[in-house]
Prior knowledge:
It is a single chain. This protein starts with a strand and ends with a helix. It folds into 4 domains: 1-33; 41-201, MutS, DNA mismatch repair protein, domain I; 225-281, Orthogonal Bundle (DNA polymerase, domain 1), CATH 1.10.150.20; 297-427, DNA polymerase, Y-family, little finger domain (Dna Ligase, domain 1), CATH 3.30.1490.100. Helices cover 40% and strands 22% of the residues. The chain contains 14 helices and 16 strands. It has a 5-stranded mixed β-sheet. Strands 12, 13, 14, 15 and 16 form a 5-stranded antiparallel β-sheet that branches.
Amino acid sequence: MHNLCLSCQSSLDDKKHLxxxxxxxxxxxxxxxxNLEQLKVAHIDCDSFYAQIEKRDHRQWxxxxxxxxxxxxxxxxxxxxxxxxxxxxxxxEARALCPIxxxxxxxxxxxxxxxxxxxxVVYALKNHHPKLRIEFASIDECWLDFGTQSNGxxxxxxxxxxxxxxxxxxxxxxxxxxxAIQNKFKQEREISxxxxxxxxxxxxxxxxxxCKPQGFAVLSTAKAKNFLAQQSPQILPxxxxxxxxxxxxxxxxRISQLQAQPLWALTQRWGRFAEQLHNMSFGKDKSSIFExxxxxxxxxxxTFSPCIYNRNTMQNELKGLxxxxxxxxxxxxxxxRTIVLKLRxxxxxxxxxxxxxxxxxxxxxxxxxxxxxxxxxxISQSENERRGAxxxxxxxxxxxxxxxxxxxxxxDKQHSTKKHILVQQSLF
Length: 428
Ligand SMILES: [Mg+2]
Ligand SMILES: [Zn+2]
């Protein structure tokens, strides 16, 4: 038996079944008698994220059913859910189920800033556990893999050596810290989060679904099969309303019925989805935590057939590309310091010219100025290379099949402008 106080994160006497924390008196005790060796994936998920934030910011709506979204429900509060309102549902349907439903227009900037805070707090776990792997699956949920001490493919090999495993004490520490994140968010941001722990991504996600809101739960591999047997297939990720309805038409309303079907029988009806369905019904999931790295560059290119031979046409094409690139940057609120011009000549050779500046830019004209300078240089150089003995240029060889422009060393524009302002202030 393992006892963890979810209020003060004390690891309590593992021999006793405690109802209250002996240190802070809280009744929020998380107990499990599972083999901690197997529990290596945690899923952190905010409870009805958008709806919760809107209720926090509009106290007067606290006792009302609300749904965030326009045509489609993006997030429904727990009161609205009692009427059957669900995320992904068309708004007219939600309104029919719950006539007093308050419909709130989403404010994504607000949700994104909460996401940034969550990211910061979660990534800070890496300070103590550098090998912890983190995957943000969406704006309000992420997975943590604290199974091994090694990076990469070793995780998927059947047996881990003792050295590769994260020691038990370190794992318990991760649990404590995840519980602390849950508390911190509730207290400081007034956002409730649920935490699920399991051997794989699937089980941790199902554990979360079952303990919401503000829950903390474990679903062990040993108990998964029996637990899932009694549940509706809709508890499985990827089984939405449409799939659930198709299953119901086949008479399948419990996962036990899926477990009872041989894979070949499922394949006849479900094709490629069958294997996943079959595995999920037993709680099996081989997918690993995929750490995404922030994009460091953005590029855009165009090919020509036939080749372009004219300098002005090339410049115009480049202008168009820079304009599009700048629009993409604007959308993502990014700016970069390095501009790369890429060309493929008629003879298929590739030329790439890079130029870096000291401050990040995102404006299409600025990007174009730098890229066009590179283009000019390249065309002049290539003309020189092709200049015959009589000083005439064999123009026919000077064609280009492709032009591309990339921007690298990307950073958030807010950061870059902030720095800029600081520099300006120190100048004046
Ligand atoms: Mg969520
Ligand atoms: Zn306590």
